[in-house]
Here is the input.
Amino acid sequence: MDLRPLIQELNAETLILGHPRVLDRDYTCVFAADLMSDALAMVNSDCKKTLLVTGLQNAQSLRTAEMLDIDTIIYVRGKHPVQEDLKMAAEMEINVFCTSKTMYETCGILFKLGLVSAVNDD
Amino acid sequence: MIEQRYTIGHADYANAGKVSSQIKSFLKQIGLDPTLLRRIAVACYEAEINMIIHSYGGEITLAMDENSLDLNFKDNGPGIPDVEKAMTPGWSTASDKAREFGFGAGMGLPNIKRMADTFEIQSTQSGTHVHIAFKVNE
Here is the structure.
């Protein structure tokens, strides 16, 4: 599903658009966690189609996305990264959004819209 | 033969992940396969974070030739009391500070081992040495 309607459904604020046309790109998978160790250990989907959903609004969520080749992060619970981290996100060309919804609500909305887990069992 | 050396400071949370980011950028520039690059980046990042969270600081070295890429993570202690336990998924001695940073799930060492083609670890009170290697020409 295109990112634009996903962001609209989440009523999310755009903080950084690393790629100008990212809103028209297709995303199919989600990994949601506040522990980055779990993301590093478990994500095995196509990272170009994967969203990282987290409440961890520090530089390590950006670094984790960078290592995994994930280019889009949605921060939940209204968590805003500091300016320094947003600057780093822009340099990394990572797209950053922020929603006031909780992790539970965010995942529920994305699940309802047809996105699947970024952890494939096979 | 390419060789690079990086210093990791004790509890240097402010710079956590910078070395792995530099290594990833360099390997991307020289055209390494993206899937292999992701495995290397994840393993390197996990090991770098481990050094910052658990050690008194140390050194990361990268060596690469046409067949393999080796990464060595050597720290200055205090060592891992029980390496076998540390290799168990979910077992962690990470501090609250580490958890605030998003780490300490007890997945670090098992994940490093899973990503690498070769994994070796030795630990004494004077330091821990993790060696990982990847085949680069397959």
Summary: Residues 3-117 of chain A form a domain with the Udp-n-acetylmuramoylalanyl-d-glutamate--2,6- Diaminopimelate Ligase; Chain: A, domain 1 fold (CATH 3.40.1390.20). The helical segments of chain A are 3-9, 36-42, 59-68, 83-92, 103-112. The interface with chain B takes residues 34-38, 40-41, 47, 54, 56, 58-61, 63-64, 66-69 of chain A (CB under 8 Å). Chain A has one domain: 3-117.
